[in-house]
Specification:
With about 120 residues, the protein is mostly beta strands. It has helices spanning about 50, 60-65; strands spanning about 5, 20-25, 30-35, 40-50, 75-85, 90, 95-100, 105-110, 120.
Amino acid sequence: MSRVLSLAAPLPGFPLASTLTLSPVEGAAGLFALSSPQAPTLHWFALDTAAHIRHYAPEFSKNQLSLVGNPGDGDLLVLAVVTTSGVRPSANLFAPLLVNASNGQCLQAILEAQEWPLRYELPM
């Protein structure tokens, strides 16, 4: 079932987007399609990092967590946007989407001063 998320801050490159529609991809656990009615060219795929990139352990600032309503441990969903333009699909681990599952607030968090790659090659 799709869910509408409210953006806590504008997305880089999509300043008019105020909401995202998060839709699970049927038959692919932990894979989601993202779109925005305010930005018709925004169509992304995103992975649930807890399910697919288990070693991923970014540190989020208090401000980033505050912007999405300080989610509890079980309420924080971390999604990595997937790019399929290269030889192998990759995930953006430098700027994940934080989703507070309890209130629907989300934010693309830039992980400054952390060593997470912009293009992490996904295993096939």
